[in-house]
Design goal:
Largest sheet: 6 strands, antiparallel
Number of helices: 8
Order of helices and strands: EEEEEHEEHHEHHEHHEHE
Strand content: 25-35%
Helix content: 10-25%
CATH architecture of the largest domain: 3-Layer(aba) Sandwich
CATH class of the largest domain: Alpha Beta
Bound molecules: adenosine-2'-5'-diphosphate
Length: 277
């Protein structure tokens, strides 16, 4: 494992950056980049040994391409025990950060502010029988971290990760992740026993179609899984997606009797925005 670098390494291999690393930032080296669609990719970077975070939290990410770089919030998609850090990103045409970030290659440098934060953490939920992780698009990222963390399975008997996307291709990151986890030496047994991955698509033909909010309202989600409707006794929920998705899913949690929690006041569900440009 390499440490954070004290000096800026080239942003594009062989092309030294003239800009200093801003105070309070790590300069991390890109290890791996995988593109899924025209609008989605993931990247992995070195992790500084001194950087600690809780699975499900987010950090601010930027590039060393300006005196005052643009930073955006990214959920760490890797678990807190991992030696590298993983992120799952959208590519926004002309987006101030992602327009450039989508071009990174192994060996390039990414900036990360040193402090992580966020509400999608196990500590913000009261114990319960099962946890619902409701995600759309890149909102799966914090859950990619949490479903790799044994603590999640210690806390809940059942973990239901729902992922809704416009197209089938956009599901691939989550599908590859869950398939790989079933064989994982650390959490493989837990994943096989406790994790349910429920995917839906809204703009193509697929086995399960429709917005997760509609599937909750109609009860189809629960019927498909052979589970009772959500309720405050047994169920906990975490929500991550676009602003509209957050609002609609939050309203459904409330109407099912769940109360919103926070780090300093754990309760039955928590919400976090997944939006970057
Ligand atoms: P839809 O295709 O009906 O808009 P986006 O890329 O816009 O964030 O959308 C990702 C997924 O989230 C899409 O399947 C989209 O469905 C769905 N979605 C968008 N808005 C909501 C909402 N308010 N509640 C639930 N799902 C939503």
């Amino acid at each position: 494992m390499s440490e954070a670098l004290d000096i800026v390494t080239p942003i594009l291999a062989g092309n030294p950056s003239p800009f200093p690393v801003p105070a309070g930032c790590y300069a991390l080296t890109v290890r791996d980049v995988q593109h899924y669609t025209d609008s989605l990719f993931r990247f992995r970077v070195t992790r500084p040994k001194q950087f600690r975070f809780r699975s499900g939290e987010f950090v601010m990410i930027g590039l060393p391409n300006a005196e005052k770089p643009v930073f955006r919030a990214y959920s760490v998609a890797s678990p807190s025990w991992d030696e590298e850090l993983e992120f799952f990103s959208i590519k926004v045409p002309d987006g101030p950060l992602t327009e450039h970030l989508q071009k990174i290659r192994p060996g390039d440098t990414v900036l990360m502010r040193k402090k992580s934060t966020g509400t999608l953490v196990n500590d913000a939920l009261l114990p319960g029988k099962r946890v619902w992780m409701f995600s759309t698009g890149t909102g799966i990222a914090p859950f990619a971290s949490l479903i790799r963390d044994p603590e999640t399975y210690d806390k809940f008997d059942q973990v239901v990760l729902t992922h809704g996307c416009r197209t089938i291709a956009e599901l691939k990151y989550g599908e590859d992740l869950v398939a790989g986890l079933r064989e994982d030496p650390l959490v493989g047994d837990l994943v096989r026993d406790k994790l349910i991955h429920y995917t839906t698509v809204t703009r193509e033909d697929f086995a399960r179609q429709g917005r997760i909010t509609d599937l909750i309202t109609s009860g189809k989600l629960f019927a498909d899984l052979g589970l009772p409707r959500m309720g405050p006794e047994e169920d906990r929920a975490m929500i991550c997606g676009s602003m509209a998705m957050l609002k609609d899913t939050k309203d459904l949690c409330l109407s099912h009797g769940l109360e919103e929690g926070a780090n300093n006041k754990p309760a039955q569900f928590v919400v976090e925005r997944a939006f970057v440009d």
